[in-house]
Design goal:
six-stranded parallel sheet, P-loop_NTPase, 2 domains, alpha/beta, DNA helicase, globular, Rossmann fold, 15 strands, 16% strand, 11 helices
Length: 370
């Protein structure tokens, strides 16, 4: 049996690879974060096979954890000193649990109380604490859950592996111990910390750990790391890949060497044309950047993850101006990864505007006139 992590790069065709590796002769389980990604994978499978085989399940991670690792085993779930004693009525994705531990009586419960995981109001389990609940169970409980899954599936695929942190990551490490089922995790390390399964910079990315350290941890957990299959980008042009290699220090190779340029825009007339062109998607750090929502086709760096555009314009920030200006470029790991996501959205041209030039343009041409 295989337990592997396929490291990918932006635009390498992860979703297509997932679809093309689904065999109608196997019992397949494909897991991803969002309903949108579920639909993307379904389209990929249908494109490959013409339909979704009856023996293939595609679902979100939250549904997988609840319906395969928690709900069937509730009578044997142990919380604190109590085993069983409750029946949940589903997953609560609307009412977040209380996190503040410092104000007694505010509704926070310690993790030795079932109400830490279960909403008193709805009797549903909090979606963001499902993995915590599973990880606190005994080795025997986890083995029983894994053995049950192996009775139903030959192949398990998990998309966007880089987004799983803390208990979600630990759960997937545990799942990889399954016997009789092949496990395939697919993800791009350099897109980690952009949209995570929780908001903490936790396992395995704490302290800004680099790729070699992550690979070492995965191999320590007996996962085979594949660094070749999905390491060329079909989306990014040869010039974009070269720029990202040189400026960001992130290895990226264009699969077909197609044309597309990186262009540093500094003249007002050209900036105006780019910003007001609806066919060029403007990518900004966040919605607080002046001009966000004013110019047509705007998005945030992190929110653009998973998207593909023909042409983009990236509005740089003070900490990232160094890639086009003669300045130091030493961003945090998270900022570096978010910039990588932004720069790899285009399959043709990428226009870059440094922050001093952009704010001067906004002040002289937009904000003053407003």
């Amino acid at each position: 049996m295989v337990a592997e992590v396929k490291l990918a790069v932006a635009g390498s065709g992860k979703t297509r690879w997932l679809g093309e590796n689904v065999s109608p002769n196997n019992r397949n389980l494909l897991i991803t974060f969002t309903n949108q990604n579920v639909n993307n994978i379904k389209r990929s499978v249908i494109s490959h096979l013409g339909e979704i085989p009856e023996n293939t399940c595609i679902m979100t991670y939250t549904r997988f954890v609840y319906y395969w690792l928690i709900r069937p085993f509730e009578p044997s779930l142990k919380v604190g000193t109590i085993t069983g004693g409750f029946v949940s009525s589903g997953i609560d994705i609307t009412q977040p649990p209380e996190h503040d531990r410092l104000n007694p009586g505010n509704g926070y419960y310690k993790n030795d109380n079932i109400l830490h995981y279960l909403s008193r109001r709805s009797s549903k389990l909090f979606s963001n604490r499902l993995s915590d609940l599973y990880c606190k169970q005994s080795a025997a409980y986890k083995k029983n859950a894994r053995n049950t899954i192996s009775m139903f599936f030959d192949e398990i695929y998990v998309d966007e592996f880089q987004d799983f942190t803390d208990s979600d990551f630990k759960l997937l490490i545990d799942l990889a111990k399954i016997s009789g089922t092949n496990v395939h995790y697919v993800g791009d390390y350099y897109q980690s910390l952009v949209s995570k399964s929780n908001k903490r910079k936790g396992t395995p990315y704490s302290n800004g750990r680099d790729l070699s350290a992550i690979i070492g941890q995965l191999e320590k957990n007996k996962l085979v790391v594949d660094t070749t299959t999905l390491m060329k980008s079909w989306r990014c042009s040869a010039d974009s890949c070269s720029f990202i290699n040189h400026k960001l220090g992130i290895p990226l190779v264009s699969a077909d060497g197609h044309e597309g340029k990186i262009l540093h825009v500094t003249e007002n007339q050209e900036i105006y044309k780019v910003l007001y062109n609806p066919k060029i998607t403007k990518l900004m750090w966040n919605a607080a950047i002046p001009g966000y929502g004013i110019f047509p086709s705007t998005n945030k760096w992190g929110y653009s993850k998973g998207d593909t555009y023909k042409d983009i314009c990236v509005i740089l920030t003070k900490s990232t101006d160094g890639i086009v200006l003669n300045q130091e470029f030493a961003p945090t790991t998270q900022t570096l990864h978010m910039l990588y996501v932004a720069l790899t959205r285009a399959n043709h041209d990428a226009y870059l505007i440094d922050s001093p030039t952009y704010h001067r343009f906004m002040h002289d041409n937009i904000l003053q006139s407003g």
